[in-house]
Amino acid sequence: MNNLPTKIEMNIIQEVQNRLGNASKQSGLTTGRVRSISSSLFSTLEDRSLNTVLNYCEQLLAERKWELGVIAYDWAYKVRKLYREDTLYIFERWLKEYVSGWGDCDDFCTHAFGELLGQYPHLLPKVVDWTHHSDFWVRRASAVILIYPIKKGMLQGMDPYIISDRLMDDSHDLVQ
Q: Could you write out the DSSP letters of every residue in 39-107?
């Protein structure tokens, strides 16, 4: 995936910022309002291919703003029917590079990333490895990512207790 923003991508970031105006989380901007903006802007995209949308998401995440992250994770979920097994590597990199709060972790993992694991349950051993990661957000993600596939009945043949057993004595309260 190209990490350099193109003119089109920069216009998308600018359009999001235009639609948000001066609104921010501190001024009362809600997740619902951000998701509404996300949906209306997503509908204007001409190219909704997996690579294009994930590239847009990457550009939004690179801004490291809560509201842009909400949109990025929402768009990543919107293209869930296009996921491929190797989408894991993009999502795993996002987890390690951009997730920096419980809201990010839970939003991303209970939707887009959880859906990916549900579609490709044989990837669970990779997630189990996260239970020993030095970053507590990654350890938290190893459990949170199971919520979506469990809720949707997509965990046939998978034992989610493997992860909970490994995290049982984790020292961080946001992992427990």
A: HHHHTT-S---HHHHHHHHHHHHHT--HHHHHHHHHHHHHTGGG--TTHHHHHHHHHHHH--SHHHHHH
For residue range 62-110, list pLDDT tens digits in order. 999 999 999 999 999 999 999 999 999 999 999 999 998 888 989 999 9
How confident is the model over 113-137, as pLDDT tens digits?
999 999 998 888 888 888 787 877 8
**Residues present in the chain in total:** 176
DSSP state of 4: S
- Cβ-contact 117, 157 below 8 angstroms: no
Highest mean pLDDT among 9-13, 68-72, 145-149, 166-170 belongs to: 68-72
Neighbours of 15 (CB within 10 A): 13
Task: Quote the CA–CA distance of 75 and 89 in Å, as a whole number.
Answer: 17
Three-class SS of residue 145? coil
